[in-house]
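Final report, Chapter 2: Outcomes

The project's central promise was a pipeline that accepts a single protein chain and returns its three-dimensional structure in a standardized token representation, suitable for archiving and comparison. That pipeline is now operational. To close this chapter, we reproduce one record exactly as it appears in the project archive, with the input sequence first and the structure output second.
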Amino acid sequence: MKESVKKWLAVYTRPRWEKKVNKLFLEKGLESYCPLNKVRRKWSDRVKLVEEPLFKSYVFVKVNEEDRAIVRMTTGAINFVYWNGKPAVIKEREITAIRKFLDEYENVEARPLE
């Protein structure tokens, strides 16, 4: 029996459930990452630094094929993001680059390439 390799996959979540889904994955023992952007929010009486998901409705999870069912059965997780009929694999270096970038900068914006 061959050992299944863990790969980073993107998971589509219910709107505004990114942090909850990330927490549920971690509680299930899965390696998960929800990139959080530090943003200053202004209210009438104060300004506060809050953490918002960088990618709305997406969380990254590092799993092997056997763990995919656990991901699908997690409350708030809708499905994997697919590319060419298979769950889209995100390279480790891309996850590392996102982590490093968010450690160095705040109030960033994710936009599609034009």
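Archive annotation: The chain has three helices and nine strands.
This record, like all others produced under the grant, will remain available to the consortium after the project formally closes.
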